[in-house]
Amino acid sequence: MQCFQSFSSSAFLALVLVLVEHAAATSTDMQIYWTQPAAGNIERSELNGSNKETFRSGLNSPYGLAVDMSTGWIYWAAYQKIQRQNLADPNSPIEDWITYASGGLLFPMGVGISHNDLYWADMTSGKVSRRSLDGGPIEDVVTGENMPTCVAVDSDGGVVYWVNYGDGMVKGRSVDLSDSVREVATGLSAPYGVVVDKTNRKLFWSNAISNTIQ
C-alpha cells in the first residue's frame, strides 16, 4: 500500500490516498478517504471522483485519518477517542483504540503514522502524543501547546510537526525526543492542517480563515 495524507483548511477534510498493491494493481485501485466532521461520516471515492460512497457514518466528529500500510487498519480521531477499522473487512466492527477513560483523550484531531507509532494532536489538552500500533502506554511528545490541531511526521527526517491554531505557529521536534521543541513558522493566521512533502522536502500548512495552503 501507499498513502498520501493531506488536510484542507476551513472544513478540515482529512484525505488519505490508499493503493492496495496486488499483481494487477492500477490507478483504479486507488481511493481517496476523507472525513466530514459535522455529518459524522467518513467518505471515499475513486481518484476521478466516481463511485463516491459513505465508508462509515454515525461517528462523533471524525477528523484526521491515517492508514497503517502494513496491516490495512484505518485510524481516525473522533470526540474523546481514536477509533480504527480493518479496511480489508468492511463488516468488521469499529474499535475504540484509545478513549477518554483509557488515555485521557479530550478532543484529538489530526493523526499520523510513522514506522510503528500513531501520533495525534489533542486540541483541548494541548498535547501531542503517540502510542505504538501494537498497543502499550501513551507517550507525550509535547505538552502545554496552544490548541494543536494536526500532526505530520517526516519519517525520513525523524521529525514530528504540528500546528497550533491558538498561537499561529508550526512547531516540530525530533521523534526520538532528543531535542527541544523548535518553532518552524510563527505569526500565522489560523493554521489548521499540515503535511510533509517528502519528495521535495517541504512542509505545507493550511489557513482556516483565508482557505489557502502555505
Automatic annotation (TrEMBL):
<dbReference type="InterPro" id="IPR000033">
    <property type="entry name" value="LDLR_classB_rpt"/>
</dbReference>
<dbReference type="InterPro" id="IPR011042">
    <property type="entry name" value="6-blade_b-propeller_TolB-like"/>
</dbReference>
<protein>
    <submittedName>
        <fullName>Uncharacterized protein</fullName>
    </submittedName>
</protein>
<keyword id="KW-0732">Signal</keyword>
<dbReference type="InterPro" id="IPR050778">
    <property type="entry name" value="Cueball_EGF_LRP_Nidogen"/>
</dbReference>
<feature type="signal peptide">
    <location>
        <begin position="1"/>
        <end position="25"/>
    </location>
</feature>
